[in-house]
Amino acid sequence: MSQKLNLPIRPRRNRKSEAVRGLSRETVLCPSDLIYPLFIHEDESNDPIESMPGCSRWSLSGLVKEVGEAYAAGVRAVVFFPKIEESLKSPRGEECFNPDGLVPRAIVAVKKAYPDMVVITDVALDPYNSDGHDGIVEAGENGEFRILNDETVEVLCRQALCHADAGADIVSPSDMMDGRVGAIRATFDQSDHEEVLILSYTAKYASAYYGPFRGALDSAPKAGDKKTYQMDPANSREALREADLDVAEGADIIMVKPAGPYLDIVSLLRDSVDVPIAAYQVSGEYLMIKSAAKDGWIDEEKVAMESLLGIKRAGADMILTYFAKDVASRLSG
Ligand code: PBG
């Protein structure tokens, strides 16, 4: 007979049964935490995206149907990413504020069918810019180029206004230009859109995890990389600086992106600002889970759920994830 240990404190008691574990569970994931990113295009067909298995580029009617399924599963927020035809792309990306463009029409269609679905739009030039950058490119000598900050912000304000006019609930600048949150807030306040939220991509890192997304939209930069505007993955203090600025400029929600490899940043910002925090589980994070699960190496449902729980535990109030519809239906089912 083995000797009983003298252990007055036994943490395992709190894990005794599912019911006991339930009593002391600190983090619970809910469908209402999730934001579902959706790709759209002009075509009539819904085309599966090769680089992102399980995701499609939706036609407008396909979009409304997919949003309806997500709504039924309990998802209450969606964000749109458009694939823009090559012929509509230009150096200054003017198509981004065309009131008859793809995104404004998608906003109207979804709000009409599901008025209480929160519609979020991405504000950045990359889908519209013939150079594939989030801002306007000024070419220099020997292939050198600059991304023009202030000129870009002007266009972003017109894009944000166009989305607000069409009925977007939240605009989400993902471009990382300096001063864009304040400029968009001022634009909204001058045009009776003071109720539209700004969800700012605050700590958006220059990450290789965005690869599959750029494949989905055909939006990769034609030259160079995004390191003069997206943040250096080596830095965390810079995230604090960006967060202070975005909050001061009027951001309602701030975002960390990617999510999984940057949980320290989520937690850092959670401890230092009072606004809600969003985290984006990006295309590369999604694809890694999908591909490992495809060959049976991991259990997709469990790993997807655990990855999202970890992001919430780190301090995210809401999570953008391509798993949103599936996870929500499992949570509410
Ligand atoms: C572009 C944008 C990107 C993503 C969201 N908005 C790509 C980029 O910055 O190059 C990436 C999302 C993902 O990888 O899932 N403004």
What tags apply to this protein structure?
38% helix; 333 residues; 12 strands; two-stranded antiparallel ribbon; alpha/beta; binds ligand PBG
Task: Kindly name the structural category.
Answer: alpha/beta
Largest sheet: 8 strands, parallel, barrel
Which strands sit side by side, in order, in the main sheet? Answer: 1-4-5-8-9-10-11-12
State the separation between the terminal residues, measured CA to CA.
Answer: 47 Å
User: Radius of gyration over alpha carbons?
Assistant: 21 Å
Percentage of residues in DSSP E strands: 15-25%
SSE order in H/E notation?
HEEEHEHEEEHEHEHHEHEHHEH
- Total beta-strand segments: 12
Unreliable runs = none
Average pLDDT for all residues:
96
Which shape, going by the Cα principal axes?
Answer: globular
Number of helices: 11
Describe the structure in brief:
By secondary structure, the chain is an alpha/beta fold.
How would you explain this protein's 3D organization?
The protein has 333 residues and is α/β, with parallel strands linked by helices. It has helices spanning 18-24, 60-73, 102-113, 149-166, 180-190, 211-217, 237-249, 263-272, 283-294, 300-314, 324-332; strands at 34-40, 47-48, 56-58, 77-82, 118-123, 136-139, 145-148, 170-173, 197-204, 253-257, 277-280, 318-320. Strands 1-4-5-8-9-10-11-12 form an eight-stranded parallel barrel, surrounded by eight helices. A two-stranded antiparallel sheet has the order 6-7. α3 (102-113) packs parallel to α4 (149-166). Ligand PBG binds at residues 122, 124, 126, 134, 174, 210, 213-214, 226, 282-283.
